[in-house]
Amino acid sequence: MFRTTMFRVAVVAAVTLILAACGGGDDESSAPGGDPGGSPQPVVDWAGDYAVDLGDGWQLTPCEGGPTLMCIRLNGETQGVAELLTYPTAGHEAVKEVLDAGGTNEEALAALAADFQEVFIEDRPVGCGAEYAVEPFGPRPATVGGLAGVIYGFEGLADGRRVERALQFAAFDGPTVYLIATTAIEDGSCMDDGELQELTIAEIDDLEQDLADAIATSRLPAVEWCEVPDVGLVPCDTAPAGG
């Protein structure tokens, strides 16, 4: 259940964020302790409230939708989002199976990537037509918040043309799986409803290395997991009192 449902969310949540989640780019970010509009900071802090400069007018800035959403903005205008998602390592069947069998972290991350990709290999032709092709890529090594991780994803092709690129960075520190997801969708594709806010394929191609560099040194939040009856593992700071 976790396999299909939760990891579908990792990209779908990022894909379906609309303009309201990030606003129109009017808010000014600030450095800690500084004035609004202060100089962009060199490190992404998922709990911070300041901008990170990616170069050529691009910035990662906090979205109004919450601290785990970063808006990807060009000259102050929101073009897409990067979202941080966290899950308990023990809750992902494919990862847990590899680790319980004595597998390495690298093997567990490869299983996580393959599990994610399989969901969309199965689902996209259902929603976009049998001719819609899903081509997975990765995983390949990447640093995620100072942790040894991977980058992977898939591309969607319609009539041989790239119309979708889903990109994920993943790592885990023991109890917590960290996923950072962003997506590009071309206008007029089956995933475009005219309201979604995504990067274009060309933009994500140009930004991928800059995003990877920023994510490599980003500050990831520590998460403690608590067992809630009839629910399972949830972040302790969201668990009901007495749960």
% residues in beta strands: 25-35%
Query: Termini distance?
Result: 23 Å
**What profile does the largest beta sheet have?**
8 strands, antiparallel
**β-strand number:** 10
How many structural domains can be distinguished in the coordinates?
Answer: 1
Secondary structure tally, helices: 5
Helix content: 25-40%
Helix and strand composition category: alpha+beta
- Major beta sheet, strand line-up: 1-2-3-4-8-7-6-5
Radius of gyration: 18 Å
> What spatial form do the alpha-carbon principal axes imply?
globular
Report the order of strands and helices.
Answer: HHEEEEHHEEEEHEE
Contiguous runs where pLDDT drops below 50 for at least 5 residues = 1-40
Integer average pLDDT: 82
Explain what the structure shows.
The protein is α+β, with helices and mostly antiparallel strands and 243 residues long. It has one domain. 27% of the residues lie in helices and 33% in strands. The chain has 5 helices and 10 strands. The strands form 2 sheets. It has an 8-stranded antiparallel β-sheet, sandwiched between helices. Strands 9-10 form a two-stranded antiparallel sheet. α1 crosses α4 and α3 packs antiparallel against α4. The chain is globular, with a radius of gyration of 18 Å. 36% of the residues are buried. The N terminus is likely disordered.
Name its key features:
243 residues, alpha+beta, eight-stranded antiparallel sheet, two-stranded antiparallel ribbon, disordered N terminus
In brief:
It is built from 5 helices and 10 strands. The chain is α+β, with helices and mostly antiparallel strands and 243 residues long.
